[in-house]
Specification:
Blueprint lengths: L2 H15 L12 E2 L12 H12 L17 H14 L3 E5 L2 H11 L6 E5 L4 H9 L3 E5 L4 H13 L6 E6 L11 H10 L3 E5 L24 E6 L9 E5 L1 H10 L1 H4 L6 H16 L1 H22 L8 E7 L1 H13 L2 E2 L2 E2 L9 E6 L6 H17 L3
Parallel strand pairs: 1-10, 3-4, 3-5, 5-6, 6-7
Antiparallel strand pairs: 2-8, 7-8, 9-12, 11-12
């Protein structure tokens, strides 16, 4: 074994000893893990739309970047329809939320600016921020006053650019909401921009499923990212922004310029998914009932505070115990995963219960019964 490979093997062994080693596993068990919140991914209507697009000649691959041959009419149609749906000046379609966040933060904030971001924002935002020329400050989770104070201190110390406030509207591991109205006021007062990642809210919350930031979209200082691979059931991401900033990304964002364009066939699927969110509000209502049932159960049976969303964490703490509980539940037929550091903070390893329309109330109740038994069996 070469020294380089040996180093990697040692690092993997270190992860194993800390119960943090990851591996790929096949799909199995009742879905309490996916982000297919309103069960669009396998919906017959979505399948039919994809088949119809294929029949009218929409290709699977774009064949090039958007600035070359890859700018298909399906991309253009999706962006226009999405802008109308979300109330934005312009929308850009990216291949993933990761690519969109990376492009946004590495490109738009300028050297003299300041990025003030919530401690729990997505890893993709952290990657983009790390690549930015702007200074960045990490803020205590969901503390709007801390955002304001950080910007004031920056100004006192000579900061002359614009602040960029970066948050998620609904956080992916805790299922809690950002104080968007307060943050929008702070951005306005400080002549800054507010960037809202709606990954887990699009299609689930807001008027017509438009997300928790629905009342803020269209403002000249607000940018909103809508992931397509979660509640919309497909793939990619829609970045809604003022037209000038979207144009700047087309000209400067390396992740946009030098990537092969997303699949035109997938763009057609996203168009249909947005229409389904509009046409089928009963999906959101059904999910709301499941979320309320789980919230009441975890509060009454486990003393856990309900998140109020389709993401319900069950914090265990110890990595190894969390893995044991998750693995036991998997053997009982439930797809529940252990979430460990560095995805979450040290000492907060957890089960992340994702509530979707892929499960019915009976399956949820059975899962909660098994969870109670397994947690008692693995108390230490």
């Amino acid at each position: 074994m070469t020294a380089m490979v040996s180093d990697h093997a040692t690092a993997l062994e270190h992860l194993r000893r800390k119960a943090r080693l990851r591996s790929l596993t096949p799909l199995r068990g009742v879905d309490f893990t996916s982000n297919d919140f309103i069960a669009l991914a396998g919906a017959p209507r979505l399948k039919a739309a994809i088949m119809a697009a294929m029949e009218r000649g929409v290709p699977a691959g774009a064949g090039g970047s958007r600035l070359l041959r890859g700018n298909h009419p399906e991309h253009e149609a999706l962006e226009l329809e999405a802008a109308d749906f979300f109330g934005a000046e312009r929308v850009l379609y990216f291949g993933s939320g990761y690519a969109a966040n990376s492009a946004l933060f590495s490109t738009l904030p300028r050297r003299e600016d300041l990025i003030v971001h919530d401690a729990l924002i997505h890893a993709s935002a952290h990657e983009g921020i790390a690549a930015s020329k702007a200074a960045a400050i990490n803020i205590v989770h969901n503390d709007a006053n801390a955002f304001d104070e950080a910007i004031r201190n920056w100004r006192k110390n000579g900061g002359r650019g614009r602040p960029w406030l970066a948050v998620e509207s609904l956080y992916s591991m805790d299922g809690d909401r950002a104080p968007l109205a307060a943050l929008a006021d702070i951005a306005d007062r400080h002549d800054g921009f507010l960037v809202i990642d709606e990954a887990h809210a699009t299609g689930v919350f807001g008027a017509g499923g438009r997300g928790l930031a629905a009342g803020l979209e269209g403002r000249e200082n607000v940018l909103v990212l809508h992931t397509c691979g979660k509640a919309l059931g497909v793939a990619g991401a829609l970045l809604a922004a003022p037209r000038m900033l979207a144009d700047y990304l087309v000209n400067r964002a390396r992740a946009f310029i030098y990537s092969t364009a997303p699949s035109p066939l997938m763009a057609a699927a996203v168009r249909e998914a947005l229409q389904m969110v509009e046409d089928e509000p009963e999906r959101r209502e059904a999910l709301k009932h499941r979320v309320a049932f789980v919230g009441d159960a975890v509060k009454g049976r486990f003393g856990i505070k309900p998140s109020g969303s389709q993401i319900q964490p069950v914090i265990i703490g110890d990595n190894a115990r969390t893995v044991r509980i998750a693995e036991t539940l998997q053997t009982q037929g439930f797809d529940i995963r252990a979430i460990r550091p560095p995805t979450v903070s040290e000492g907060t390893a957890r089960l992340r219960l994702s509530i979707t329309l892929n499960v019915d109330m009976e399956q949820i109740a059975h899962m909660l019964d098994c969870l109670a038994t397994v947690m008692e069996e693995h108390r230490k």
